[in-house]
Backbone:
């Protein structure tokens, strides 16, 4: 098995005193799955790939391990976590109730990028996972490395995205190390993720079911199976507890300022910012002569993403990471269509630019 280590010294300023700093090991999948599973069982933090983004995993039934997630990410304690399990039976074991809507959606879309919010069984997971609330968010990921890890670990795994809180989600192991290197035990490297943005979250404790977060599973696919209403994005419950992850107004954000440009205006806005002395990156839509590869234009670095919602979503975070790593001061993003198929992309761009 091949391992690598990284000690990220640049991210230490302002860290909580209780966050340990040590070399973060990189375990290559599939050889490293057994070692990563053992680390999870021992209560340590392990980042791993899913089909959406890389998650930062800890035993969901061990309070100290879950608290370590919040410390490593700098995540507010009122923001609940998604629990990842290997199959539907394991998800049911965490639930006090499993309504018909849950059964229909799980049968249709698991493994896959859908998270279901159900009423929790009180003794199955630590209170920290749910921020003390009565519901738990659960899903079965579709990535073969994630499923193999969950089966090998044999425990439910709480796993938000593997990055500092509110920052840009990781879609490669290198992105994880950039954000959390030195804060976690290891990263299981399974290559780049395929969907590129987070799961769709649906609350099935209410009737009709409520959409809490747009995500990689199209809304129309969910609506074809169960009645559904839109929860409106930023949703909080009693005491300020978030009802779903990813509901902060500013989230999924790079260091650079994200500027949303009207259709046809991105290049002009980028050029004006460049002329004002800023280092500027532009995200355009539609394949070009560079085949989507980053290239230097008159207004700075430019990346053209596909003019197709799923393909655009799959490459969005990687493009934002690239431009952020290129030390851009601003990233100008060409407007995406006002169409239901683009809802998840619009949500991510809006929160990144807040």
Residues:
């Amino acid at each position: 098995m091949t391992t690598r280590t990284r000690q990220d010294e640049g991210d230490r300023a302002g860290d909580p005193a209780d966050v340990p700093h040590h070399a973060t090991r990189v375990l290559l999948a599939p050889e490293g799955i057994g070692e990563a599973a053992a680390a999870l069982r021992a209560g340590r933090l392990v980042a791993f790939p899913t089909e959406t983004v890389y998650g930062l995993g800890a035993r969901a039934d061990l309070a100290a391990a879950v608290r370590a997630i919040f410390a490593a990410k700098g995540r507010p304690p009122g923001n609940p976590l998604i629990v990842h399990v290997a199959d539907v039976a394991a998800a049911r074991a965490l639930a006090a109730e499993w309504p018909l809507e849950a059964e229909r959606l799980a049968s249709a879309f698991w493994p896959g990028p859908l998270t279901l919010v159900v009423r929790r069984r009180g003794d199955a997971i630590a209170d920290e996972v749910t921020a003390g609330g009565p519901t738990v968010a659960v899903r079965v990921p579709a990535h073969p490395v994630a499923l193999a890890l969950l089966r090998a670990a044999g425990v439910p795994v709480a796993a938000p995205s593997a990055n500092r809180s509110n920052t840009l989600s990781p879609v490669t192991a290198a992105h994880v190390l950039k954000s959390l290197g030195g804060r976690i035990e290891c990263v299981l490297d399974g290559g780049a993720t395929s969907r590129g943005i987070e799961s769709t979250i649906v609350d099935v404790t209410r009737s009709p079911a409520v959409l809490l977060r747009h995500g990689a599973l199209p809304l129309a696919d969910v609506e074809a199976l169960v009645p559904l209403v839109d929860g409106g994005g930023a949703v909080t419950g009693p005491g300020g507890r978030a009802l779903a992850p990813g509901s902060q107004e500013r989230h999924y954000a790079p260091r650079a300022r994200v500027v949303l440009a009207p259709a046809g205006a991105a290049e002009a806005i980028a050029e004006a910012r460049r002329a004002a002395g800023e280092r500027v990156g532009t995200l355009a839509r539609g394949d070009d002569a560079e085949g989507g590869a980053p290239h230097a234009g008159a207004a700075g670095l430019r990346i053209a993403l596909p003019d197709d919602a799923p393909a655009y979503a799959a490459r969005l975070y990687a493009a934002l990471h690239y431009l952020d790593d290129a030390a851009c001061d601003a990233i100008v993003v060409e407007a995406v269509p006002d169409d239901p198929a683009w809802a998840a992309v619009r949500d991510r761009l809006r929160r990144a630019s807040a």
Remarks:
- DSSP finds ten helices and 17 strands in the chain.
- The CA atoms of residues 128 and 195 lie 28 Å apart.
